[in-house]
Amino acid sequence: xxxxxKIAVFGGGSWATAIVKMLCENxxxxxxxxxxxxxxxxxxxxxxxxxxxxxxxxxxxxxNLSSDINKMVxxxxxxxxxxxxxxxxxxxxxxKVDLSSKIVFSAIKGIIPESGLIVGEHFxxxxxxxxxxxxxxxxxxxxxxxxxxxxxxxxIACQDEAKAKILGDCISSxxxxxxxxxxxxxxxxxxxxxxxxxxxAGIAHGLGYGDNFQSVLMSNSIREMKRFIKKIHKxxxxxxxxxxxxxxxxxxxxxxxxxxMFGNMIGKGYTVKSAMMEMSMIAEGYYAAKSAYLLNEKNxxxxxxxxxxxxxxxxxxxxxxxxxxxxxxxx
Amino acid sequence: xxxxxKIAVFGGGSWATAIVKMLCENxxxxxxxxxxxxxxxxxxxxxxxxxxxxxxxxxxxxxNLSSDINKMVxxxxxxxxxxxxxxxxxxxxxxKVDLSSKIVFSAIKGIIPESGLIVGEHFxxxxxxxxxxxxxxxxxxxxxxxxxxxxxxxxIACQDEAKAKILGDCISSxxxxxxxxxxxxxxxxxxxxxxxxxxxAGIAHGLGYGDNFQSVLMSNSIREMKRFIKKIHKxxxxxxxxxxxxxxxxxxxxxxxxxxMFGNMIGKGYTVKSAMMEMSMIAEGYYAAKSAYLLNEKNxxxxxxxxxxxxxxxxxxxxxxxxxxxxxxxx
Lengths: 331, 331
Fold this sequence. Notes:
Chains A, B: This is Glycerol-3-phosphate dehydrogenase. The structure is a homodimer. In chain A, the strands form 2 sheets. Chain A has an 8-stranded mixed β-sheet with strand order 3-2-1-4-5-8-9-10, sandwiched between helices. Chain A is of the alpha/beta class. Chain A has helices spanning about 15-25, 35-45, 70-75, 85-90, 120-125, 145, 160-170, 185-205, 210-230, 240-255, 260-265, 270-280, 285-300, 305-315, 320-330; strands at about 5-10, 30-35, 65, 80, 105, 110, 115-120, 135-140, 150-160, 175-180. The first copy, chain A, has 15 helices and 10 strands. In chain A, about 55% of the residues lie in helices and about 15% in strands. Chain A has 2 domains: about 5-180, Rossmann fold (3-Layer(aba) Sandwich); about 185-330, N-(1-d-carboxylethyl)-l-norvaline Dehydrogenase, domain 2, CATH 1.10.1040. The relative contact order of chain A is 0.11. The interface of A and B includes residues 214 and 219 of A.
């Protein structure tokens, strides 16, 4: 592969915007697809995204912006997808260009509802992209802090570590450090599951549980995550590495976490519907809770926290009662 | 051992006060030693500790208060020590009563400076208390939240688990859940080390690092803690259990943590001396950093975070420079 590859980011949200910013530190040209043409027009005129982390400023001459996904796929050697998992399928369905020679990285934290697969698996099984051309970009990293250029560590996973290394070099800068991993399955599941645990943390907070309980909840969450991922893809991994534990913590503890915020509203008594209406962003964990719960019906791993979140979000159970029960199931 | 043992708490600080409160939920009489007679007089009159978690109210008829440590040692079958590690030796030196038949629990998070031993080891090696009569009470648990009766999980460790169980039953209540462990060495070291990592988290915050970095720091801290403890006492333990990871998180992330606050002041530019003067409570991690660093000189475990805190607190190195260097040593 070319050491100076053409890279394009697909998505118009916070995380997509943050990744474009990282790439602009190193590349002369960065492709950026978003479906919203008016946002593109706004960026061209005002040099920042109108809707997400708008304090991140761009030199528009570096940006190759387009709302034509096929044009962007054609342009790029490396495609980075950062679209909410619920909308990925609809976007992928638009693609008519052959993807088999492309390198595709997922920066999406979730399961594609239509296929029940994580994004990497979906690319491999549904779009026939060879597994060695599929990778994952994962945190711990709130996009908001990338905008502020606060030091962040990303993990780039790919079974072909040379490809991970190339992308890592393209996004490293004085405020981004990158680490390479070969665990594409585990890092992607971790990125999905942590959003469920962040919702749980938010619910607990909303119900009035304190810091002592939160720490127990997070300690149980990482053990649950380890069991869940081990069942799906057993390999040697240190679950306490930044891509797993760090990602859980930044989401579970940070005020920037929309999943935690969503959970907090649920805990305070909002209905799921009203909490979703109040928030202008999508809480990925809402979809992840369902996907993980359904997936686990056959895997049968002990997942009391995922079960609790599922019961509250999808079975209309009372958060207070569910959490009272949960406190007996964790330690 | 008697199933209804006489229990006394030694210490007048937040954590001692919280443990007395927990015991009062179950016992008719709780012994409480503190050296400050005027605080005892105040409690008898006002039904709360004047200096620490003063919102915790007591029925003084339940309390057997005394500033005579020998009287209290004589009274009790189970002694719970919750005195800052720097002052333990001076208090223990006052004891003339034979301790060999007593059961002694440590609720202290630190190393006794004079002996360089954690409290359990000190009891065993210096006071000849049999190892099966020594135990540890550990969090994650901020005393402030016990005062508010917020649900908290404690771990009670003793090689003789029956003894841990008895004490566990005495402190369990509708807001305290207890878990039994046989890892007295590991839980006690974890309780000590977490304060150093909380200082590191505070320094990072004070220097302007954000949530993304904090999560990486915590993820590295738990791995460092695991290495450190494994070297000292190798046994099967899950470092992600609440007594280890939970305790680290509650201290590293909570606004109630005085160690984090102390670190924050250092990061913001206070000298060690002025930060200590500003705070009315002792940051245990200050002493722990020195003890852990010295201990590790012979163990030679890779501990970049402990080293960084030590350099700042004891070698007068610039926090900004030390942390800039630390960012290269963690991932």
